[in-house]
Write a sequence for this structure.
């Protein structure tokens, strides 16, 4: 029962997809400057969704996962079916406060298992790899008025490449050049369209409120676990500003756990703690603007249900996606749960991708950013007309 | 500049597109025969002195400590070896008179990426380039592939060292199984390409074929040396790309990799990547076609493929459109200044540009298109770095003569004017170092 032709209804405490009446989404185009913010966390390397949001109540769980089945102490129960990995404690808190919603057993339309093609489909919003050269978030940005985007990190992911006005930021280790030199360089670059556009975009950030790039230099920028946390804090500060920065994205690696992914400690737990700490820092930095902010946490695909020969997991299909925010109608897991019965596994090995990830992404853009259905179907997610936006994701 | 502009422009093109950016004097050495200068490097490469010291050997042979304390000491040793060797490699790139050869080393190291994102291999990444990549720049793709697939750095990075056939002796005794990582990336990233015509079943088959390709054990410790372990190898026939492999033992893997190296999809995939690296982000199909056919005709003889690339007219078109990555930009800058940085200066400079050597984010390596490097933040960091560097050099570098020496022949009137009008020597030099002429290749 895919999300495509259904709307969301609540059944037994768990929001599932069932037959329902189709409502007409709003057709209004976002004209005025919006105060809504949307930030996307791209988990690169394929998150083991079954280890993040654990279907401990599925009667096939222990058998299906084998050595990767998590012990009780590694879980925070959310309901009779799902538990949050204890390493995601701050996210479990948000769930309890009704500010986190999860879509499980989800995937983009991509069905092979290459990271790079999977990331291309996730970022581009296309139905197959390498068919679009821009990202869905950038195309959404292109439609919004008076809004700019930001990539947190040294490069701009495909997600944010395209028609939208985008800048990027990462911690600097050197003091910046002065404005006079920058003006000279800007003149020097006039004959080189790429450099000239890129430098202009870098300077946009300078004009955008208190957190300018010049003051953003943090000597001895930190690496590793703290680097993500401090970058997320910075992202929150930048988006909280009164300027026009409204959409953003960051990439976080460390999810490709082929070896020794661990149970209640180890590589995967470390990565999850990093993610939690980052989201926590982001939320705090936003302050009151958290009310008007939505965060999407998405990954290119999931991992095999059963472990491989090296106490890790190989590339799979279905996984989990998270939506967080001050106005999210959360505290629930949505989507059709296919279960872990042997016959239910996709190609006999992966969590079945019962729910199209684009339904969630479209739902967020429709309800939160007020993009119209034609824009979503024709511009942002071409060839997604059969996948309706998920509804009821936010408090009205 | 009194020399004839046309030959110097071609010399700059050769030094920039195919090399690492000109050092003072290099354009004069290239002279009127840029193709000859390039092809000479294919014939008789001079390998820089980068051999591992006996001390490095000792530090990196035993990778894993037997106790927590020993493991901590190992980690420190590995980081020290990594930093020392990476800095020596950087200096060799600043110094080399064979930049075309060195660029090929960089290309193939990136094609067959190993990354310190898996920290245990930090002490091995430079050795990997030295042992698996360099010896085959003048040889065949197939030999390089076989060397790569047998190197401890790759076997650890893509997890094959621990992959066990379920029906092997160890698999039966301990209930162990395969790890698909190396099998998949060998086809997706190293040979056929993702659209090269393989399936999930082929991934599993290749992983099974390669079980037992692992590391040696000495005195109960794992050491960084290749060894084939029959007791880990999956017995019985396997079907890869429709062909049955039932030789048993290590011969199976060699036969399978040989087949992959000779597969037409591999020729096309490698030709596409080479063309994207040297010619344009969007590789011209004519060049790809040409390189792929030479690759097939010569059984993957790399100097023949590179020679064909040098002969392609499309590789000599103006303007230079490729955007240098941070490493290439940093090396080219120090070459232009004719300054060989020490360990702290070289690795610190790269760090300021958000780059670490052998630290690719994924097995696909560092990206090779402008969109990945010309981000607003990255362009700003080049400016900040170049300005910091220029202030250190202002006392003994005259930007005007430096401009003439390093990139004089192609300096646009705009750059020339910007440098001339700069209010200080440092700013003049900074403008030169961030000019489009130095950022593109």
């Amino acid at each position: 029962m895919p999300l495509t032709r259904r709307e969301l209804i609540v059944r037994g405490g768990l929001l599932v997809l069932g037959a329902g009446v189709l409502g007409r989404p709003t057709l209004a185009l976002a004209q005025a400057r919006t105060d809504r913010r949307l930030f996307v966390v791209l988990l690169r390397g394929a998150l083991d969704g079954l280890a993040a949001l654990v279907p401990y109540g599925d009667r096939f769980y222990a058998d299906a996962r084998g050595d990767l089945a998590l012990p009780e102490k590694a879980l925070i129960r959310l309901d009779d079916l799902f538990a949050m990995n204890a390493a995601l404690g701050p996210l479990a808190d948000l769930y309890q406060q009704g500010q986190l919603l999860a879509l499980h057993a989800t995937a983009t339309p991509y069905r092979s298992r290459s990271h790079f093609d999977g990331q291309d489909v996730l970022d581009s919003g296309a139905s197959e790899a390498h068919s679009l050269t821009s990202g869905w978030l950038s195309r959404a940005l292109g439609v919004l008025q008076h809004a700019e985007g930001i990539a947190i990190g040294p490069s701009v992911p495909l997600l944010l490449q395209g028609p939208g006005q985008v800048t990027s930021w990462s911690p600097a280790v050197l003091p910046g050049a002065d404005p006079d030199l920058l003006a000279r360089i800007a003149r020097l670059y006039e004959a080189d369209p790429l450099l000239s556009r890129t430098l202009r975009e870098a300077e946009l950030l300078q004009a955008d409120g208190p957190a300018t790039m010049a003051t953003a230099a943090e000597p001895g920028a930190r690496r590793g676990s703290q680097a993500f946390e401090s970058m997320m804090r910075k992202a929150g500060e930048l988006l909280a500003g009164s300027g026009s920065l409204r959409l953003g994205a960051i990439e976080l690696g460390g999810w490709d756990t082929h070896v020794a992914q661990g149970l209640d400690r180890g590589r995967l737990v470390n990565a999850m703690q990093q993610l939690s700490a980052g989201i926590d820092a982001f939320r705090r930095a936003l302050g009151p603007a958290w009310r008007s902010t939505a965060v999407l946490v998405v990954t290119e695909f999931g991992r095999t249900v059963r472990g491989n020969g090296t106490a890790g997991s190989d590339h799979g299909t279905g996984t989990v996606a998270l939506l967080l925010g001050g106005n999210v109608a959360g505290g629930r897991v949505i989507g059709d749960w296919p279960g872990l019965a042997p016959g239910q596994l996709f190609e006999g090995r992966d969590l079945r991708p019962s729910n199209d990830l684009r339904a969630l992404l479209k739902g967020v853009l429709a309800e939160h950013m007020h993009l119209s259905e034609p824009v979503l179907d024709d511009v942002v997610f071409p060839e997604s007309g059969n996948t309706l936006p998920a509804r009821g994701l936010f408090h009205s | 500049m009194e020399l004839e502009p046309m030959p110097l422009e071609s010399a700059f093109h050769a030094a920039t597109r195919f090399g690492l950016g000109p050092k003072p004097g290099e354009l004069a050495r290239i002279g009127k025969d840029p193709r000859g200068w390039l092809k000479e490097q294919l014939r008789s490469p001079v390998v820089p002195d980068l051999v591992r010291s006996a001390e490095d050997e000792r530090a990196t042979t035993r990778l894993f400590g037997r106790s927590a304390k020993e493991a901590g000491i190992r980690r420190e040793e590995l980081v020290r070896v990594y930093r020392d060797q990476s800095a020596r490699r950087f200096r060799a790139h600043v110094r080399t008179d064979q930049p075309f050869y060195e660029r090929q080393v960089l290309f193939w190291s990136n094609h067959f990426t190993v990354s310190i994102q898996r920290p245990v291999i930090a002490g091995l990444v430079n050795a990997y380039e030295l042992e698996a990549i360099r010896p085959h720049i003048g040889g065949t793709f197939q030999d390089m592939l076989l060397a790569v697939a047998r190197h401890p750095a790759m076997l650890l990075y893509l997890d094959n060292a621990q992959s066990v056939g379920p029906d092997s002796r160890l698999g039966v005794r301990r209930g162990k199984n395969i790890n698909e990582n190396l099998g998949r990336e060998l086809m997706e990233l190293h040979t056929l390409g993702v659209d090269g015509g393989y399936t999930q079943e082929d991934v599993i088959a290749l992983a099974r074929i390669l079980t037992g390709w692992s590391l040696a054990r000495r005195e109960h410790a794992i050491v960084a040396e290749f060894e084939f372990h029959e007791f880990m190898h999956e017995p019985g026939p396997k079907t890869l790309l429709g062909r049955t492999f039932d030789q048993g033992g290590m011969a199976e893997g060699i036969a399978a990799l040989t087949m992959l190296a000779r597969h037409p999809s591999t020729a096309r995939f490698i030709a596409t990547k080479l063309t994207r690296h040297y010619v344009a982000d969007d590789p011209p199909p004519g060049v790809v076609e040409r390189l792929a056919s030479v690759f097939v005709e010569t059984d993957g003889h790399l100097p023949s493929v590179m020679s064909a690339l040098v002969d392609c007219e499309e590789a000599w078109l103006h303007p230079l459109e490729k955007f240098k990555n941070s490493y290439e930009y940093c090396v080219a800058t120090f070459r232009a200044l004719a300054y060989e940085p020490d360990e702290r200066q070289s690795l610190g400079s790269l760090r300021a540009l958000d780059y670490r050597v052998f630290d690719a984010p994924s097995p696909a390596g560092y990206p090779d298109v402008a969109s990945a490097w010309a981000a607003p933040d990255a362009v700003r960091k080049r400016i900040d770095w170049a300005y910091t560097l220029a202030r250190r050099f202002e006392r003994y570098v005259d930007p005007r003569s430096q401009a003439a020496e390093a990139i004089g022949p192609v300096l646009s009137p705009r750059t020339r004017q910007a440098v001339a009008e700069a209010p200080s020597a440092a700013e003049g030099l900074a403008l030169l170092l961030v000019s489009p002429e130095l950022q593109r290749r």
Q: What stands out?
A: Residues 323 and 370 of chain B are 5 Å apart (CA to CA). Residues 1-5 of chain B have pLDDT under 50 and may be disordered.
